[in-house]
Amino acid sequence: MWLNNDRVFYAGLLGAMSVRTMGGWLVYVSLGAPIRIAAGDAALGVLPADTVWQSTDLAVVPPYTPHRVVCDERLICSITVEPETVDDAALPDFMRFHAGAVPGGWPGAAQTVQRVRAAHTWLRTHGRDIDLQTTSFDECFFGQRLAPRQLDPRIASVLEEIRNDPSRTTTAQDCAKAVGLSFSRFLHLFKDEVGTPFRSLRTWKRARSLLHHVTREANLVHVALDTGYPDSTHFSHSIRHVYGLKPSELFAGSRQLTVLGDSPAARAAQQAERWC
């Protein structure tokens, strides 16, 4: 797994077929056998069973969309793109026009699958030796730089603080005061600029920060406190909602995972491994 504040690339075990609701743009790519995906109402069991599952090598899930994904090989590649970092209107066509399976005949679909698989192989070989940044990540996986979203400077400053330290307990009231806005104006402006309510984004960023700790040998209660959760119950509920897995299952499935990237946790882990 490679991650920074803007992107995540994961290749490994898929986990249980549970409903997951993540806050980033998700691009799933099969590593061999096709994946099957159910998104939105299909994932929640609202639609008839015979209309639920789509089989594909490439799937897209928009931010905060409930979905389920399965694969016979139980292995998968996924890319997560933080929505506040990109201009939705300038995303690759296969992301903007699809929620769920991307048809194999869609222009660029086959090339995207090939590019992601090749990047996966390249990262496995060279991941520890490169300084991969967001722009080079995008070029590697998407064949282009993804255009950044233009944000109100006040909202941008709040986002940067949350992204850099998602465990902080700063409230929306604190943020509104810090940028000189009334509480109600701040909430409205935040949702208009980011596309999701303040609370939803905070929940996602906190759950996302857990990825920096999944290879850590530590009591899960300590991990919960370190990532900003008030107690283990809140921690477990939030992680299950986002990832569709209990925290213990998430950690158990990550025991053989290698974490790369430019986060402080990842740098520390890499440094420790070099000295071992």
Tell me about this structure:
- With about 280 residues, the protein is of the alpha+beta class.
- It folds into 2 domains: about 1-140, Sandwich (Jelly Rolls); about 155-275, Homeodomain-like (Arc Repressor Mutant, subunit A), CATH 1.10.10.60.
- Helix content is about 40%, strand content about 15%.
- It is built from 11 helices and 10 strands.
- The chain has a 7-stranded mixed sheet with strand order 9-6-3-8-2-1-10. Strands 5-4-7 form a 3-stranded antiparallel sheet, with no helix packed on it.
- Strand 1 and strand 2 form a beta hairpin.
- Helix 5 crosses helix 6.
Order of helices and strands: EEEEEEEEHEHHHHHHHHHEH
Number of helices: 11
Strand segment count: 10
pLDDT < 50 runs, ≥5 residues = 264-276
CATH homologous superfamily classification of the largest domain: Jelly Rolls
**What proportion of the residues is helical, as a percent range?**
40-55%
Look at the structure and give the mean pLDDT.
88
- Give the second-level CATH assignment, the architecture of the largest domain: Sandwich
- Return Rg in Å: 19 Å
Distance between the termini: 20 Å
The level-1 CATH class of the largest domain: Mainly Beta
Number of domains: 2
Fraction of residues in β-strands: 15-25%
Overall geometric form: globular
Q: What is the fold-level CATH name, i.e. the topology of the largest domain?
A: Jelly Rolls
Summarize the biggest pleated sheet: 7 strands, mixed
Structural class: alpha+beta
Strand order of the largest sheet: 9-6-3-8-2-1-10
